[in-house]
Write a structure and sequence with these properties.
Helices cover about 40% and strands about 15% of the residues. By secondary structure, the protein is of the alpha/beta class. Strand 6 (about 145) and strand 7 (about 155) form a beta hairpin. This is Glutathione peroxidase.
């Protein structure tokens, strides 16, 4: 009887959870240097989010340092950052361990990082298809998307935009201030 009650409760709650999770966050990504997966809804739904497509061998790779500083500055206010390595622009390693070394050892990244994923064109993962639909597809590595608590892109920025850029910070603060 207890099991039946739990199943009925789960069936009643599951549609509510799916309805509360924005479409762009419905799915999972493999976590960098791990067998674990990042459940996008579980980890990011209802939170302000900065999504960045990254690459280990790009001239913009030093931006990891600024992105980490931004994350540390705002994580206490709920900001999440998701880095998604991609080889779409031919500047990411085929070796996940090498990618992890660049992120975690060379730049001290503590925010969430997925394994390498396609982020442009027909092969793009659903998250990046939705980001592109709401703004534009990445034109290069380190494109940045600020997403509010409802899963809406409030701003997107080019690769050249640094993490301490006043416009990016204003967009992050707007996303943080958005109602859950």
């Amino acid at each position: 009887m207890l099991l039946r009650s739990a199943v009925v409760s789960l069936l009643l709650v599951a549609p509510t959870l799916a309805a509360e999770c924005p479409s762009m966050l419905q799915g999972e990504l493999p976590k960098l240097r791990s067998k674990d997966r990042i459940d996008l809804c579980e980890q990011f739904a209802g939170k302000p989010l900065l999504v960045v497509n990254t690459a280990s061998f790009c001239g913009f790779t030093p931006q990891f340092k600024g992105l980490e500083a931004l994350y540390q500055r705002y994580k206490g206010q709920g900001l999440e950052v998701l880095g998604v390595p991609s080889d779409d622009f031919k500047q990411e390693s085929d070796d996940a361990e090498e990618t992890a070394k660049v992120c975690y050892v060379d730049y001290g990244v503590t925010f969430s990082m997925s394994q390498t994923q396609p982020v442009t064109g027909a092969q793009a993962i659903p998250l990046f298809k939705e980001l592109a639909a709401q703004s534009q597809a990445p034109r290069w590595n380190f494109s940045k998307y600020v997403v509010d608590r409802q899963g809406r892109v409030v701003a997107s920025f080019s690769s050249r935009t640094l993490a301490d850029d006043p416009e990016l910070i204003a967009a992050v603060e707007k996303a943080i201030a958005s109602a859950p």
